[in-house]
Write a structure and sequence with these properties.
The complex is a heterodimer. Chain A is mainly alpha-helical. Chain A has one domain (2-262). Chain A is built from 10 helices and no strands. In chain A, helix 1 packs across helix 5, helix 3 (60-91) runs parallel beside helix 6 (142-170) and helix 6 (142-170) packs antiparallel against helix 9 (209-223). Chain B folds into 2 domains: 20-263, P-loop containing nucleotide triphosphate hydrolases (Rossmann fold), CATH 3.40.50.300; 269-334, 2-Layer Sandwich (Alpha-Beta Plaits). Chain B is globular, with a radius of gyration of 25 Å. Chain B has 11 helices and 14 strands. In chain B, helix 4 (132-142) crosses helix 5. Chain B has helices at 40-45, 80-87, 109-115, 132-142, 147-160, 176-188, 206-223, 235-241, 259-264, 311-322, 337-347; strands spanning 25-35, 53-64, 69-73, 95-100, 103-104, 116-119, 194-198, 227-232, 244-249, 252-257, 269-277, 288-294, 299-307, 326-333. Chain B is of the alpha/beta class. Classes of the chains: A mainly alpha, B alpha/beta. Chain A binds chain B through residues 2, 5-6, 8-10, 12-13, 16-17, 20-21, 91-93, 95-102, 257, 260-263, 265-266, and chain B through 32, 34-35, 56, 82, 85, 88-92, 94, 110, 113-114, 116, 118, 120, 122, 124-130, 134, 137-139, 141-144, 146-147, 150, 170, 186, 190.
Chain lengths: 268, 350
């Protein structure tokens, strides 16, 4: 209960800070509208036939719209843990936070929370705008999507915590964010199906959680797939959770201890 | 700062209280070694060369009884902040043990962080776009207070520190003095028995510094009975505030005791400034050295370094009078901090 209260305090803090930059806050949503418009016209030019491998009968605009929308979660999971810690280091607030009895794990989780909330709002806007442009979204499947979403956030968070561990120890040059982010965009099926790449390259997409997350979301929201249909994707995401979360936690604990030993915990 | 709001009154700490007689702070053989950062070029030129070690602290032994206002005195780079950060669990010691209220900083850091309030000299340690009130409420939640408790405690402390009127203003609009007071508010949110203050008056003007010193002495120490560890490089501040001091230099505790113990026990000479009228020739003696500086009004200003013990000074004054001079004034000049350190190092004082 106390931890929930602390997470709520982080959420309130970040909302107040974000809302104090009113123009930048509003511009983010204008950016979404622009992005959807651009891809609406691009898909008009591409005119990919519905029987394109990997599209599985979906319209390309609908495909890319969901790819873009849910890529926000990956960006939040990857970026927010490490970037928020880095921000606290450079602004000098990390020291004041770490002398409190709140555990570093809760601090990292709390720091990332706002980005996830913001990402959810953005996904909602993407879906609403897409719907306005004629994308047939199966909103009745949203509860199922939320289940997939929760597992996906956990899996992505494992990677995010790992990158935060790098930031605590290396300060800059966290290789995780860059590597996973670029590889996910390239191979994970954000803008095009992995099946349309060279087969050996497309096969690598099976090692990325985003591939399963996007497949599950698209199947649920565009094709009305049932829980049973999504089970293979859900199991794959759970396996990623089982591997990545403990790995992130161990790396994080190691990084904190090492940084305390070296006296570099709050350096940047 | 005269009112004493209810929440600022002393509170009892019934649960988890350490055994009576346990010192508030106890450091035994604490050492901290840092590895010197190597540049990329250096690593490429000499890849197998071990990184140079820098001694941040060397065999520090201190015991601070509860309720003491204790000073850590030393120039920049002496190791004061390192020591405070070890006590605040931000840095682990390389050797030795450090305890706060009986809890070890390496093994039981949670208990230590509950028992300590840390006031950093860094003004950036708040969220500049949030109000002072929002900042404090956020940190209060991190100290485990409920939402209602955080609001109440924040209001009490803002009132106690006379920051009520600016509570809703963004932190970035605060003066240095206000920022420092808000830092003290934050350290008091969880009502810790021990406060570590890292050069709290560093960025303040003389009047604000004087007010803050008064507040530390009367409100935090005398009224609240807090154990306070104050790091400073200001000898006057240490003298004004602290009951006991440790002089740190290059990571070592050179001396420990009251300021009088520390300066009186120094070998070497005491410094005086004399103003003498009608002095034809400065009296010479191996027990003193004089640097005369004639002034336009005929009075000679003498900077005198005199052997300790009282007698040499008395003899010097008599010699001046005997040579026809009239002593206009005589004042003792307290040694500056740097002189104390230099002298201690020269004499190898431990």
């Amino acid at each position: 209960m106390k931890t929930l209260g602390i997470l709520g305090a982080f959420l309130k803090r970040d909302f107040l800070v974000e809302a104090s930059y009113r123009t930048a806050f509003a511009l983010q949503f204008v950016g979404i509208m622009m992005s959807v418009l651009i891809w609406r016209f691009v898909s008009g030019v591409v005119k990919a036939p519905a029987d394109t491998p990997g599209l599985d009968g979906m319209d390309y605009f609908a495909y890319v719209l969901l790819g873009l929308a849910f890529f926000h979660y990956l960006s939040s999971a990857l970026g927010s843990f490490s970037s928020k810690i880095r921000q606290e280091q450079t602004t000098g607030t990390l020291e004041a936070i770490l002398v409190t009895p709140t555990s570093p794990g809760t601090v990292v989780l709390g720091s990332a929370l706002w980005e996830f909330v913001l990402a959810s709002v953005k996904v909602g806007i993407y879906l609403a705008v897409g719907w306005a442009f004629g994308v047939a979204i199966r909103f009745e499947n949203l509860p199922l999507c939320l289940v997939v979403l929760a597992i996906t956030i956990l899996a992505f968070s494992g990677i995010g915590i790992l990158s935060a561990a790098f930031i605590f120890y290396l300060k800059r040059g966290d290789p995780i964010t860059y590597l996973v982010s670029s590889v996910s965009v390239l191979l994970g099926g954000v803008f095009y199906p992995p099946q349309d790449m060279w087969p050996w390259l497309g096969a690598l997409s099976k090692f990325l959680p985003i591939t399963y997350a996007l497949h599950a979301w698209r199947s649920a929201l565009l094709k009305g797939a049932s829980f049973r249909d999504l089970l293979p994707d859900i199991v794959a995401l759970l396996i990623f959770c089982v591997i990545l979360l403990p790995l992130g936690a161990v790396a994080f604990r190691f990084a904190i201890r090492k940084a305390r030993q070296e006296g570099s915990l709050v350096q940047y | 700062m005269t009112a004493t709001p209810a929440g600022f009154a002393p509170s009892s700490r019934a649960s988890g209280e350490p055994a009576p007689g346990t010192p508030a702070l106890c450091l035994r053989g604490v050492g901290k070694t840092y590895l010197k950062h190597r540049s990329l070029v250096e690593m490429m030129v000499r890849p197998f060369r071990k990184a140079e070690r820098v001694e941040g602290l060397v065999d520090v032994n201190l015991e601070v009884p509860r309720g003491t206002l204790y000073g850590l005195l030393g120039p920049n780079g002496a190791g004061k902040t390192t020591l405070l950060k070890i006590l605040a669990c931000l840095i682990l010691p390389t050797s030795g043990t450090a305890e706060v209220e009986g809890s070890d900083v390496a093994r039981d850091d949670l208990a230590v962080r509950r028992a300590i309030g840390f006031v950093t000299a860094d003004e950036r340690s708040f969220y500049w776009r949030l109000s002072g009130e929002d900042n404090l409420e956020f940190f209060a939640r991190l100290y485990g207070l409920s939402a209602a408790g955080a609001r109440r405690r924040t209001r009490e402390l803002l009132a106690a520190m006379e920051l009520e009127e600016v509570a809703k203003r963004q932190f970035m609009s605060y003066s240095s003095g206000m920022k420092q007071r808000l830092g003290i508010c934050r350290a008091l949110l969880h009502d810790p028995p021990v406060l570590c203050l890292d050069e709290p008056t560093r960025s303040l003007d003389p009047i604000a510094a004087k007010h803050l010193r008064h507040f530390i002495r009367t409100r935090l120490h005398q009224e609240r009975g807090k154990t306070i560890l104050l790091a400073t490089h200001n000898l006057q501040e240490a003298e004004d505030l602290c009951q006991r001091l440790a002089v740190l230099h290059r990571g070592r505790v050179l001396r420990e005791g009251s300021l009088h113990d520390i300066t009186a026990g120094l070998p070497g000479r005491e410094q005086y400034v004399l103003e003498v009228a009608g002095l034809a020739r400065a009296p010479a003696d191996p027990r003193w050295s004089l640097e005369p500086e004639p002034r336009a009004d005929g009075v000679v200003r003498l900077a005198a370094a005199v052997d300790r013990g009282g007698r040499p000074l008395s003899d010097l004054l008599q010699a001046i009078l005997a040579s026809g001079g009239t002593i206009v004034s005589c004042s003792r000049r307290e040694p500056g901090l740097q002189e104390v350190f230099d002298q201690m190092e020269r004499e190898g004082v431990r």
